Amino acid sequence: MTAAIMTLIDLENKHFAALGGWLRSERDLVQWGGPDLTYPITDHQLEQMLIEGKTTPPKRLCWMAADATQALVGHVQLALDWRNGVARIARVMIAPNSRGQGLAVPMLKAVLEKAFSYPEIERAELNVYSWNDPAIRTYTKIGFSHEGVRRSSVKVGNERWDTAIMGLL
User: Fold this and answer.
1) SS3 46
2) pLDDT, averaged across the chain
3) 117 CB-contact burial (10 Å; exposed 0-12 / middle 13-18 / buried 19+)
4) Residue 51: partners with Cβ closer than 8 Å, 6 or more residues away
5) What is the pTM for the complete model shown?
């Protein structure tokens, strides 16, 4: 398999409909964005993420990922802790109709390249629900190490989910 060409495009309001369309249930939304967002995702919730990117320095950077044909195939964010030199990869998603094509690795490598392009950033980390084996395999493949688990950290409907913590220096 040849490496997929992936371009990160700054998230803009014009992308909200596509991104929202990928989140088809409360479970999808919590898996992607954590328990603080409400389903269905609204433009207002997405706009708040963009506002965090307008601070100096930015607190959050948000991208859509486009493939070689410029089709939107993914989304990813970086939350930046400048004081401690940490970039947290967050809200990672491959479009439902693009999954299983090996697109997550090049998208995440592009995000890591951006994160570590800042001399202040020395560590990348992420949270992933412990039942999400495909994501955990992908993160391990690009060099993340398992660092721990927050047990029963999120409630979705009648389920309790554990959160795995992964890091990369």
Assistant:
1) helix
2) 96
3) exposed
4) none
5) 0.95
